């Protein structure tokens, strides 16, 4: 095989590995246990999305180079691995988008719980304040 074919082979393997290394973050079901955790996970997912977007040209380059090599007779040997790269690349993009949606829902839920807890605490404070005012009106010692 030519130097170009060997380089393509290495690049293809590198890209498959790159995608596989990021897949666990994209398919993670950890959606956080509280608002700060969810917000941190959203930031991490946004970073992953940017990393994927930034990596898109490398994937396109590999697939473009494949078109040239396929014409040189290597098609049968590498076709399956190129298809694997295309498939897992799409899967990574889909999974990271789905995770974004799940994290947004988790953030909304955690924001609701946070707001409800704050409202409950405020009402408790108001109740204590009103009770002390009531005691003062009745003339009871506070």
Automatic annotation (TrEMBL):
The organism of origin for this protein: Micrurus lemniscatus lemniscatus
SMART domains linked to this entry: SPEC
Protein name according to UniProt: SPTB2
UniProt keyword list: Actin-binding, Repeat
Molecular function in Gene Ontology: actin binding
Keyword Ubl conjugation: no
Cross-referenced CDD domains: SPEC
InterPro entries linked to this entry: Spectrin/alpha-actinin, Spectrin_repeat
Taxonomic lineage from the root: Eukaryota, Metazoa, Chordata, Craniata, Vertebrata
Name of one Pfam family that matches: Spectrin
Signal peptide coordinates: none
């Amino acid at each position: 095989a030519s130097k170009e074919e060997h380089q393509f082979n290495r690049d293809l393997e590198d890209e498959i590995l790159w995608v596989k290394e990021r897949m666990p973050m994209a398919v993670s079901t950890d959606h956080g246990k509280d608002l700060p955790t969810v917000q941190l996970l959203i930031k991490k997912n946004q970073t992953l999305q940017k990393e994927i977007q930034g990596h898109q040209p490398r994937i396109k380059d590999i697939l473009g180079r494949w078109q040239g090599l396929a014409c040189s007779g290597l098609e049968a040997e590498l076709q399956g691995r190129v298809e694997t790269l295309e498939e897992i690349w799409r899967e990574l993009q889909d999974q990271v988008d789905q995770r974004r949606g799940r994290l947004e829902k988790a953030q909304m839920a955690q924001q609701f719980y946070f707001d409800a807890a704050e409202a409950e605490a405020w009402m408790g404070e108001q109740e204590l304040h009103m009770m002390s005012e009531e005691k003062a009106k009745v003339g009871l010692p506070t």
